[in-house]
Amino acid sequence: MGEFDLIARHFSRPAQSDSVEVGIGDDAAVLRPTPSASLVVSTDTLVEGRHFRSGVDPEALGWKAAMVNLSDIAAMGGFPRWLTLALTLPEADDHWVAGFAAGFRAAATSCQAELVGGDITRGPLTIGVTALGECLDAPLTRSAARLGDVLVLTGATGGAAAALALLESVTEEDIPPSLLHRLDRPVARVAAGRAARGLAHAAIDVSDGLLADLRHVLDASGVGARLNANALTPDTDLQAAATRTGSVAAQWMWAGGDDYELLVAVPPTHARTLLEIWREQGLQPIEIGRVTEASGLHWAGDAPTMDPVSSGYQHF
Amino acid sequence: MGEFDLIARHFSRPAQSDSVEVGIGDDAAVLRPTPSASLVVSTDTLVEGRHFRSGVDPEALGWKAAMVNLSDIAAMGGFPRWLTLALTLPEADDHWVAGFAAGFRAAATSCQAELVGGDITRGPLTIGVTALGECLDAPLTRSAARLGDVLVLTGATGGAAAALALLESVTEEDIPPSLLHRLDRPVARVAAGRAARGLAHAAIDVSDGLLADLRHVLDASGVGARLNANALTPDTDLQAAATRTGSVAAQWMWAGGDDYELLVAVPPTHARTLLEIWREQGLQPIEIGRVTEASGLHWAGDAPTMDPVSSGYQHF
């Protein structure tokens, strides 16, 4: 079975959206942008053994590959539109590709995005996704956090890192679903990102770990932050995982990575409104601190106990 | 040196075009599309040992990675605008990345396109590129070839395949530059593709090999073709390479692949105009046959002598 057969069997589908003039199967896709919208584009690569474990369920992998890119669109306050997929596979495994395609499609559909093109080549398992979204007014960037802004997360962090740590000693079946889902079934906070436009000053998704991504915002904005170490408290599953693996839950929550919650800097005058909207969306937002003039990170009270050199996910 | 250092050193540059609202360094790029243009998107992956040889000059590789994607935009009759790059590297080799980035940027600039985002991860050497272009009126697809159309190439094929064959027995220095350039420094036929809009019915770039890509056009259009085997004649370098390696030049020209010329199906009434424009652009177009009602490929006179099972580049 060759590239074209795999694509025809598992990826070619009639276009769902009127915006897709030419979909999968030509030299390039042809898309109709929304008039006067800006285009939001993000590319991410997932490499076996580095961004996902060998033997992971292909459907979960397809889901995650789409979602981590859609999360970048969400972090700009954009609405997802289209995806391309560059799949490099060691062999043409029809069953594996079927599962991967189903997971990818499910994630895309849940965010109103559509796969419009890509390629399949033979090589070490690598997944490259480009997500295209649109934004009808100014996008949320990393560089616009201002003095006094409240730093708010769309939800709890640390679950993905806890699941990854547990996988070193136990099988998937023995991992609490609440944690395994955080690792394998992330959900891009698209509605939350869109709601933040016009209210928040800056946003980022905390895929590299909360503190590392917060530093990206602070550096780009030329400000600092004062954080409340008690803002993040482990739930029962997370605490049990920490105890079981001899780990520190605070490490996972503040620096674990792979979380795909959004972190925004929102002025105090708009914070209450945004929190209300996010709660109505079913989220459980968490205020973690404030933007300060002094550069760098400071802790209100004691810093959480964690590995002092931890600075988030290193791609290298 | 980490991902962010490599990106900052070699890829982050002030945006060249007004269309880039947010460039490299945020969760996603934010771009301003041309009003009423359609968006043309293509993704391709290059894997070491499969799409390029190990140890190839990184600058040539960067050039080619950009060009093979820009060629897909050209094949739709679009004008290139933006590129994203997903670079997976076995190690953070600063010198290698500098060369790659220079070649990539040179290719992009030569087509008026700009790198706007991407990522660098550690893993087996793999290059994923997404090219974004625009088209102000109907794009050229594969599926619109019509009975009687003339099949015309923008230029000679086979050089890349000849260079690849020579590399099995001789060093780069011993390969005629005319052939090595076809392999390592392809040029996307952007102006030729744009000129073909409104004149030609269908277009494709012959990256998979001329006959294989012609079949893609014929299958998508529901027609056949009658080809003139004498249309393609090897030049001195190509013939010498065939003699030296005991190969058949016709095999390289009709089925070699990696050529990045455009093949168009143009109605006879417009063929002369298109050929004139292409010659003014410095191209040496070649008429290879006609579109017929009968499906499949037929030869006017003797078929060229070549491997009968050859059907173009197989990605798997």
Describe the structure in your own words.
Two copies of one chain form a homodimer. By secondary structure, chain A is an alpha+beta fold. Chain A has ten helices and twelve strands. Chain A has helices spanning 3-10, 58-75, 94-110, 159-166, 177-184, 190-196, 210-221, 236-245, 249-255, 268-280; strands at residues 20-22, 29-31, 38-47, 79-89, 114-122, 126-135, 150-153, 202-205, 224-228, 262-266, 286-292, 296-300. In chain A, strands 8-10-7-11-9-12 form a six-stranded mixed sheet, with helices on both faces. Chain A has a four-stranded mixed sheet with strand order 3-6-4-5. Chain A has a two-stranded antiparallel sheet with strand order 1-2. In chain A, helix 2 packs parallel to helix 3 (94-110) and helix 4 runs parallel beside helix 8 (236-245). In chain A, 55% of the residues are buried. Chains A and B meet through strand 2, strand 3, helix 2, strand 4 and strand 5 of A and strand 2, strand 3, helix 2, strand 4 and strand 5 of B.
Q: What order do the helices and strands of chain A follow? A: HEEEHEHEEEHHHEHEHHEHEE
N/C terminus separation of chain A: 35 Å
What would you call the quaternary organization?
homodimer
Number of helices of chain A: 10
How large a portion of the residues of chain A is in β-strands, by DSSP E? 15-25%
Q: What is the tally of beta strands of chain A?
A: 12
Question: What best-fitting shape of chain A do the alpha-carbon axes yield?
Answer: globular
The largest chain-to-chain contact, stated as pair and per-chain residue counts, equals: A-B, 69 and 69 residues
> Which structural class should the secondary elements of chain A be placed in?
alpha+beta
Calculate Rg of chain A over CA atoms. 20 Å
The residue ranges of chain A in which pLDDT falls below 50 over 5 or more consecutive positions are none
Give the helix proportion of chain A (percent range): 25-40%
Q: Can you give the mean pLDDT of chain A?
A: 93
Largest sheet of chain A: 6 strands, mixed
Strand order of the largest sheet of chain A: 8-10-7-11-9-12
